[in-house]
Amino acid sequence: MNWLEQLLGDEWSITPAGGSTGEAYFAKKQEGKRLFLKRNSSPFLAVLSAEGIVPKLVWTKRLESGDVITAQDWMDGRELEPEEMSHPRVAELLSKIHHSKELLDMLMRLGKTPLSPTDIMTDIMNDLALTPHLRHHTGVEKAIVYLEQHCFTIEDTDCVVCHCDTNHNNWLLSNNEYLYLIDWDNAMVADPALDLGMLLYFYVPESNWEEWLSYYGIQATDELFRKMKWYAISQLLSFIQWHDMRGEEKEVEARLCLLEEVMD
Question: Which Pfam families does the record associate with it (predicted)?
């Protein structure tokens, strides 16, 4: 962390913030000023901050190495509990994100092009080639067959900015009851059903889907449900492979169980 100490000075105490990349830190000054620091965040962060979707961006600095450091307000709060994902404010914030022209324009300027189901299938098969033992798991084999049989095009779809990991751990509720969606490193331009499928299948009882979607601002349709199922299965396969590569056996088993539930 020498680079951070040189950047901020001796008056700041710095501690790792955890996370999968190891590139995030908390910084605290004696008089109480606190920041959340991250190395090489996407330029997309500035627009997310301006839209009030992530905690306020305080400054951005470029190091001699070329790395870019961003500093955001450190918010006192907590992540959402799984059962809180059914709350209307989650649906309303996700709808705001999906309907933001500013977010979409920025991500497109950064070179993102719409992610199609065919692209996702290609990524899944390439990843599974690295973990052949998973490829022969009965549940995984069934899921691949389902995805291949039900693959569709998005030519007529209004693609939006998708977070791509709407896990409850990425929803931050501040002490003043303001809701944020954080960790945007994997954001893509895609069918909104990508985010909706993961969130609803993993967290919201199916009997409540129509009501939840009404808070989001759309009407439930059979076509939407088919797309949501396709994306939920595809994301589960990606997560299973990711956790397997990291040797996280319990997470792999948990995701395999979820995959079986979604496939039923």
Answer: APH
